[in-house]
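Following up on my earlier thread - several people asked me to post the actual chain instead of describing it. Fair enough. Here it is, all 308 residues.
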Amino acid sequence: MKKNLFLLGLLVCSMATMAQTTEKPESWYFKLGGSYFLQTAATEFPTVSGALPNTDVYAANGTTLISRETNHGSFGEGFRSGITAGYRFSPRLGVEVSANYFSSASKTMVETTNRLVAAGPTFATGKAEGKIRAYDIAPALVLFLGEAHGFEPYTKVGVIVPVHGDLTIETTRAYTNPAGVTNTYTKDVVKPNPTVGFLAALGTSYKLGTHISLFAELEYRNFTVHGKTKETEVYTENGVDKLNTATAFRPDASYSANHTKYVEQINSTSNSKVTNAAGFDNTRATDDISSYVGISGLGLTFGLKYSL
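Reply from S.P.:
Thanks for posting it. Predicted structure:
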């Protein structure tokens, strides 16, 4: 009898041990993936160097507006690559921290066709396009839904913390008058203030081997950023550097013309030609009201997962 009880106890212990081995979660895992996002939550773009975010078309006289359209969009469209470290506390619960690089698609913010800008006459046709590049850290909480036939679906929610990035606005214009055509190019770089965003994802992994899996995720990301500073880094006319040279098409080449500090409000004490023309100092950055841009997108990610 004692022998039978001993054997039964040994069998129970063996089954328990096997169950624990089967359910034992992976401790650490790492993922490497690439994504493409489509924009969501499109909003009106901010002004660009005082120009409203419109697409304007003028008649042959250059003064009669025949078409106007407001430019909307989000900088959430684009490519992302990232590496992720994850840890499972249990078969169902884990955490991840990912480091990502995102490069958005170019978006037309302002466009003008055949506008009369000076006597002579001089007509201007041009376009301003913006593009965001950003590095971020994204911690997330992961809920694993159970494995079946090699597939293990999961969901996760988390926050997005940008650590570095900028909005680059490239503006090209062609000025046409009886003397000929002058092509100008301007590159403005906007640095953002710190911000935090939100992410949510639904994904699954598929085991290829003991340690290697494929994974796919459908992810929604949403955050907005507002400018801290703007600097005009490049200005050329017909390919010739004119950044610090006053010209007919850009008569102000002072420090204030090339540098902007964004603030919440401009008033009589601000370094602004709009509210403090008498006290404006062109050796300091121009104060301007901060503008916001959206970086919202829905993306699909594919990659490899390595589990320890």
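The two ends are 44 Å apart (CA to CA). That should answer part of your original question.
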